[in-house]
C-alpha cells in the first residue's frame, strides 16, 4: 500500500513536470543518459594475490546511485517528456553526455581537474568558476543548438536571443 502511494506520487510528479515543460518551452535539451547501464551491478574484482578472494568494487556506492536513479524516475521522465514534446509539436534534443560536467563553456577546455567538488566548477585553463550544474546545463544547451549558418551580410534568424519560453513571464534559458 505504501509503496503504491509512493510510486503514484513519483508518476504524478513526472507527469506534472513534463507537461509544464512541454507547454512552456519550444525547445528542451537533455543529456542522453544510458540509465540502464548506470544501474547495472558492478562486476566482481578478483584478487590476483588471493585466488577465490575479491577486491572492493564499489558495489555499495553503486547501489546508492542506482536507488537514486530509480527514485527520481530518470527513464520515465525522459520517455514522458519525449512523448509530450512530440505531441505538442515542440523540439526535444538529446545530446551525448560525455564530458559535459568537466568541459568549460567559456574556453572549451576539458579536464577532470575542472570539477573541484560535486557543486563546484573552476576551469584550470581560463579560471572560469560557476556552479557545476549550471555549467553542465549550459554545455548541454550549447551542444543541442545547431551552429548558425549566416548568409553574407545577414545575421542568423533569432540571433542575440537565448529565450526559449513561449510564455512571456517565463525566463527560459539565458546564454
TrEMBL record:
Start and end residues of each Cas12f1-like TNB domain: 74-138
Stretch list, region Disordered: 37-58, 147-175
Biased composition (Low complexity): 154-163
Pfam families tied to this protein: Cas12f1-like_TNB (PF07282)
GO molecular function: DNA binding
Keywords from the UniProt entry: DNA-binding
InterPro entries reported in the protein's UniProt record: Cas12f1-like_TNB
Protein name as it appears in the record: Cas12f1-like TNB domain-containing protein
UniProt source species: Mycobacterium gordonae
Amino acid at each position: 500500500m505504501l509503496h503504491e502511494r509512493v510510486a503514484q506520487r513519483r508518476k504524478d510528479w513526472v507527469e506534472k513536470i513534463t507537461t509544464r515543460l512541454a507547454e512552456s518551452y519550444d525547445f528542451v535539451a537533455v543529456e542522453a543518459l544510458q540509465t540502464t547501464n548506470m544501474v547495472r551491478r558492478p562486476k566482481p574484482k578478483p584478487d590476483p594475490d588471493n585466488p577465490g578472494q575479491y577486491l572492493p568494487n564499489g558495489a555499495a556506492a553503486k547501489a546508492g546511485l542506482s536507488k537514486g536513479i530509480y527514485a527520481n524516475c530518470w527513464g520515465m521522465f525522459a520517455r514522458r517528456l519525449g512523448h509530450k514534446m512530440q505531441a505538442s509539436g515542440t523540439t526535444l534534443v538529446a545530446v551525448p553526455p560525455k564530458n559535459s560536467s568537466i568541459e568549460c563553456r567559456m574556453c572549451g577546455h576539458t579536464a577532470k581537474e575542472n570539477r573541484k567538488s560535486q557543486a563546484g566548477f573552476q576551469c584550470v585553463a581560463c579560471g572560469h568558476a560557476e556552479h557545476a550544474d549550471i555549467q553542465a546545463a549550459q554545455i548541454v544547451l550549447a551542444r543541442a543548438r545547431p551552429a548558425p549558418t549566416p548568409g553574407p551580410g545577414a545575421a542568423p534568424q533569432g540571433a542575440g536571443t537565448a529565450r526559449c519560453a513561449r510564455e512571456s513571464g517565463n525566463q527560459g534559458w539565458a546564454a
